[in-house]
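Before relying on records like the one below, remember that each one covers exactly one chain. Contacts with other chains, cofactors or solvent are not represented anywhere in the record.
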Amino acid sequence: MATNRRPPAAPRTVEATLTWLKQRGSKKVRDGMARYAIPSDRAFGVPVGVLRARGKQLGPDHALAEALWQSGWYEARMLATFVDDPAQVTAAQMDRWARDFDNWAVCDTACFALFDRTPHAWRKVTQWAPRQGEFVRRAAFALLASLTVHDRQADDAAFARGLVLVERAATDPRNFVMKAVNWALRSVGKRSRGLNQAAVAVAERLAGATEPAPRWIGKHALRELTGASVRRRLAQRQ
């Protein structure tokens, strides 16, 4: 007689999860990480899509997320951002994790999948933007860009204040900071018509700078923010 059997529950201990990750890792994926400037010395080689699916299977688990993060493995930290509960994430935890960021992938995923859903997100944008650490500063602008997508309640004034931080940080020539600042500028400028005008004004000032970093950020952002597709999308939204 046929029976409907549910799949076995995913193991929730950090040891079992690390074993699961190790079994699904591959040298090919690890070797490919170098092309994207992701260190692989503490990586198993598990594709991000597999990690995201595993996160959905596990469901929210704050304790497991913290244990995975503390393991130091790349995939474990990525998975931690998918399973942590934003309501239980503290400001101190965000600071601690941000200090551990050593690559753009974990930084951006933490911001886009977890941090921007916490009640501390806006405060961290402001606090991290002037920090000197490359990936902590990147996190400020990756988080700002993420908030343009996921924070439906914030008004334009909040993002306009973010543009002030963007302009201040645009002189930082470090690659991972520069690209995050550009990402934030373009994302804010696509949020609304009013913010588009404000972001274009910032981009124009940056494009006219003599330093290479702000000039690149400004010119790159201007091409997108003044393009027909963005203008058409904003007009439809209005």
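Residues 6-10 have pLDDT under 50 and may be disordered.
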